UniProtKB/TrEMBL annotation:
Organism this protein belongs to: Trichonephila clavata
Residues where ATP binds: 32
Keyword entries, A-Z: ATP-binding, Kinase, Nucleotide-binding, Transferase
Lineage: Eukaryota, Metazoa, Ecdysozoa, Arthropoda, Chelicerata
GO molecular function: ATP binding; protein kinase activity
Gene name for this UniProt entry: CSNK1A1
The organism's place on the tree of life at top rank: Eukaryota
Kinase found in the keyword field: yes
Name of the featured protein: Casein kinase I isoform alpha
Annotated PROSITE patterns: PROTEIN_KINASE_ATP, PROTEIN_KINASE_DOM
All residue ranges annotated as the Protein kinase domain in the record: 3-62
Length: 62
């Protein structure tokens, strides 16, 4: 497992956000999780948008 979840730091209509640790380098990360039973999955689309915007100011790294 690459990431270890530490604690829940937020939630919204499309999922929960956790503080995590990248176990290979100790870096703190945010991990967003969505139920596999979600009627309208959003994470795939969100990750595609983040990849398009990658490198912009204030844009998270994926």
């Amino acid at each position: 497992m690459k990431y270890k979840l530490i604690r829940k730091i937020g939630s919204g209509s499309f999922g929960d956000i956790y503080l995590g640790i990248n176990q290979s380098n100790g870096e703190e990360v945010a991990v967003k999780m969505e139920s596999v039973k979600a009627h309208h999955p959003q994470l795939l689309y969100e990750s595609r948008i983040y990849r398009i915007l990658q490198g912009g100011i204030g844009i998270p790294h994926i």
